[in-house]
């Protein structure tokens, strides 16, 4: 990604979210693995790794937005999937892609690593 200069100022107190038109925010863990990213449109993508650095779960920006269920369309889609009643965090878990290879199956919190207990249609 190319370096981008803020439009208005270089002083921190004067910078706003609109100062960096093409910015993307990346959050890293202690092992320097990307765990969250926020794109220009505000979409949040999340990656979860195991203790060995292997990706075990990924939640795309679209599925994150669906899990929040803010729009009428999202709520209808959650109803069709049968997951509107659970809390947002559980919906996000059910919508996440489990590794290896993004299988489209969610892992239950109570499942031991590597065991999938539920399968849901991918969004």
β-strand amount: 15-25%
N- to C-terminal distance:
29 Å
Going by helix content, strand content and strand pairing, the class is alpha+beta
Q: Runs with pLDDT <50, length 5+?
A: 99-123
Work out the helicity level.
10-25%
- Secondary-structure element series: EEEEHHHE
Computed over alpha carbons, the radius of gyration is 17 Å
Supply the number of helical segments: 3
- Tally of strands: 5
The average pLDDT value, as a whole number, equals 75
Instruction: Name the strands of the widest sheet in spatial order.
Output: 1-2-3-4-5
**What about the largest sheet?**
5 strands, antiparallel
Backbone shape: flat
Can you characterise this structure?
The structure is a single chain. Helices cover 21% and strands 18% of the residues. The longest helix is centred in the middle third of the chain and has 10 residues, at 72-81. The two termini are 29 Å apart. The protein is flat. A five-stranded antiparallel beta sheet has the order 1-2-3-4-5. The chain has helices at 61-68, 72-81, 88-95, and strands at 25-28, 34-38, 44-49, 55-59, 97-98. It has 123 residues and is α+β, with helices and mostly antiparallel strands. Helix 1 (61-68) crosses helix 2 (72-81). Mean pLDDT is 75; it is low at 99-123. It has three helices and five strands; from the N terminus they run ββββαααβ.
In short:
This protein has 123 residues and is α+β, with helices and mostly antiparallel strands. It has helices at 61-68, 72-81, 88-95; strands spanning 25-28, 34-38, 44-49, 55-59, 97-98.
């Amino acid at each position: 990604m190319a370096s981008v200069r803020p439009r208005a100022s270089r002083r921190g107190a004067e910078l706003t979210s609109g100062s960096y038109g093409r910015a993307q925010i990346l959050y890293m863990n202690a092992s320097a693995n990307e765990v969250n990213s926020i794109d220009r449109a505000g979409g949040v993508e999340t990656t979860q790794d195991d203790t060995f650095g292997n990706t075990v779960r990924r939640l795309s920006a679209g599925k994150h937005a669906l899990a929040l269920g803010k729009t009428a369309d999202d709520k209808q889609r959650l109803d069709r999937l049968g997951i509107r009643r659970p809390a947002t965090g559980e919906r996000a878990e059910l919508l996440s892609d489990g590794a290896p290879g993004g299988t489209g199956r969610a892992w239950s919190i109570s499942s031991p690593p590597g065991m999938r207990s539920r399968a849901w249609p991918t969004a």
